[in-house]
């Protein structure tokens, strides 16, 4: 007899479950510290912190979001005072995006908490297991492309 379909056995189910649980923890920290920030906004801020001056299409590529969604996120972050757009010196249609001083301060305030949670998420997982997990996850991502 064929085994019935079980959604909890799907690879995507486990990945999404982990994502949801991680997002909840991080959103709790954002709220606790008084920052009105979504996980998606945090993802964009991470990219800009690591690579200041990216244009919108580069941010979209690095965050795996479509350009329209990135535009909305950037608009909100701009209204909150966390980012600034500067004209691109070679392409008049593009803007280079940077964290403002306020954005850098907020990011610096949250980083210790985010790093602490990252350590908690890794609890009981050896470095070898983590490397293997990352390799397997990368293969899953490649297969999904």
TrEMBL record:
On the tree of life, the source organism's domain of life is Bacteria
The Swiss-Prot or TrEMBL record annotates one GO molecular function as:
DNA-binding transcription factor activity
**Is Transcription one of the keywords?**
yes
What SUPFAM superfamilies does the entry give? Winged helix' DNA-binding domain
Q: Which UniProt keywords apply?
A: DNA-binding, Transcription, Transcription regulation
Q: Does the keyword Transcription apply?
A: yes
**Source organism (scientific name):** Paenibacillus monticola
A Pfam entry, by short name? MarR_2
Pinpoint the HTH marR-type domain residues: 1-142
Q: What is this protein called?
A: MarR family transcriptional regulator
Where are the membrane-spanning stretches?
none
């Amino acid at each position: 007899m064929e085994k019935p379909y079980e959604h909890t056995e799907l690879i995507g189910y486990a990945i999404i479950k982990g994502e949801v649980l991680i997002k909840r923890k991080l959103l709790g920290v954002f709220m606790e510290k008084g920052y009105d920030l979504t996980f998606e906004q945090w993802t964009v801020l991470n990219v800009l912190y690591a690579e200041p001056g990216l244009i919108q299409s580069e941010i979209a590529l690095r965050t795996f979001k479509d350009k329209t969604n990135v535009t909305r996120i950037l608009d909100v972050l701009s209204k909150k005072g966390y980012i600034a757009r500067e004209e691109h010196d070679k392409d008049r249609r593009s803007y280079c995006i940077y964290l403002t001083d306020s954005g850098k301060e907020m990011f610096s305030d949250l980083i210790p908490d985010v790093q602490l949670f990252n350590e908690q998420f890794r609890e009981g997982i050896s470095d070898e297991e983590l490397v293997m997990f990352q390799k397997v996850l990368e293969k899953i991502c490649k297969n999904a492309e």
